[in-house]
Amino acid sequence: MDKEKQEEYQIDGLSCANCALKIEKEAQKIEGLDNVELNFAASTINVSGDSKRVSNLEQELQKISDRIESGIKIKKQDNNKEKKELNVFSLKEYLWIKKDLIIGAIIFFVALSISYTDYFRADFWPNLSLPLYLSAYLLIGWPVLRAALRNIGRGQLFDENFLMTIATLGAFAINEYPEAVAVMLFYMIGELFQERAVNDSRRSIKDLMDIKAEYANLIKGDEIIQVDPEKIEVGAQIVVKAGEKIPLDGKIISGSSALETSALTGESLPREVESGDEVLSGMVNLNQLLTIEVTKEYNQSTVKKILDLVENASSKKAKTEKFITKFSRYYTPFVVGIAFLVAVLPPLLTGAAFNTWFYRALIFLVVSCPCALVISIPLGFFGGIGLASKNGILVKGGNYLEALNSVDKIVFDKTGTLTKGSFEVAEVKSHSSYSADELLNLAAEIEQFSNHPIALSIIDAAGSFENHSSNSQYEEISGAGIKAKLNGKTYLAGNKRLMENNNIKLEDHEKNATVVYLAEEGNYLGHILISDQIKEDSYEAIKKLKAMNITNITMLTGDNDSTAQDVAFKLGINHYYAELLPDQKIEKIESLLDKKGKLAFVGDGINDAPVLARSDLGIAMGALGSDAAIEAADIVLMTDEPSKIATALEIAKKTKRVVWQNIVMALSIKAIVMILSVFGLASMWAAVFADVGVALMALFNVMRILKS
Asked: Where in the cell (predicted)?
């Protein structure tokens, strides 16, 4: 097989969820493809497999869709477009497309009015009624009849087109002409409203993610030209005017302004920036001209990553979605079976009129389509994911959004998560011939190759120090500190464990601060106290979580016990574990996992990647622009505010509530109409409402998620 490739195709005109399932199932049979996922909410189909097959599937996918549903157009996704547009027609265009439906409706109402005119109740009326009603029926219902005939040829009997055809032709068979045409008319009108509602839902979700700039102002010589952001290379300089979106990640080289970051972070307050500051694509320049040097190509930019994550999130389906998809496969045949029994058994067993029970069976057929469930549930989860992204929370799939509802234990990393992670040297204490300044400079020399926040704080405090010579030796010991050989002497800088492991006696320090101990040739030199402040938002986060009845909150840290105890006490966290090595954090997470609920671990997404992966739910925080965080976690908070975890939980609960409202509403109304029909208390009008009407109600309910 040639090199594997992934490709995305746009699907225009797809508003039938059952059809979407069939298209996906048929596409999965195409030779040379490893994976096919149709995203009904985003109107896309993603395929992966043999590069030659994947790149030339447009016609094959079109043939599949034409066999299943007319009016669908498949095209390869155009990445040069600002966003995926939906088919939107003007009223005039829409009426022209549906002209047969309008003409059929007029004929039907003429026939209906004639049937209630005394003049035509003579012998002339029976000869005129059937042709009029048949004409109206064929004009109105031809798309349904054509699809039903096509599906019968492929052995697909249990779809809504076949069921509606059988139900209405059955009504003709028992001389219920007006009802047969009326049911088809209102079914088609309901389908139009449903198509519009589906498109409105998709548009609302896409509007939440309207964060990509349409163009970039590229500086080329003495000119400024507008170009596609995807065509700009790293190192190029662009200009962003007041009111424009920043098209690419970069660094400000001139100008200062305020940026609106709400599209990325959900924060309402503008962020002040000036020359030298990093800026991200998707932010909006509010008031002053900025000149920016591009640091990342579009495909690696923040906007691209966010859009990809949100649009691909629907491929990771929640358990509820999978259940409904499986349920719908058995539900329709089951109801059709009951309809057959309703039509046959009562006349056979009791001698009742066949027409009466046949009519009641037809009602079962109309009710049997599970569209309300199949449409509204994926749109519901997609809407929840879109709302979360609006609040600066990236959820990688409906399965993770649903899993948030089962979280009963939350474990926080301390440094950079609950605390600011911006360390400062608070005190330098020497127990040797070194002065405090000499000891600080020595520590900076030892730490100079480390990127750890504590090391950086020491380097920053020292200011200037002697750099390592070329023959220096340097070794970072995970979870302990650093061992360095300078000028023929061995030095250690790290925590208490590092000293104890090297049999160095030291003066233990129990202050509520991080302590870096130093030793030379096995002799204790002194220590440096490093302070870190608790985030103000951490207090609010713990308070909100407890208000949501999540009281099992734990903190893990590699810091000393006294510092951990102080932070836990101030925040009201009951459980904490200190002085943990990275592998010990994983062991601790494993000991806290159980089958009753789900455990979420919250970390910075860089140093905590193994722990994020091992948890039921990994939540990376403060990950704006961080590749490692986005890769490691299931949920990514784009700011460093732990209180957004409570926001994510609220969105997850609201999404679950709306999804289950739709499930209960759809099944309840359908069940009620079926039961009433058995007793002769429901007509086909009620059956159409239980099918198309309930689907519309479910879609309008989904729209409420987006209004938060």
From this structure: Cell membrane; Membrane
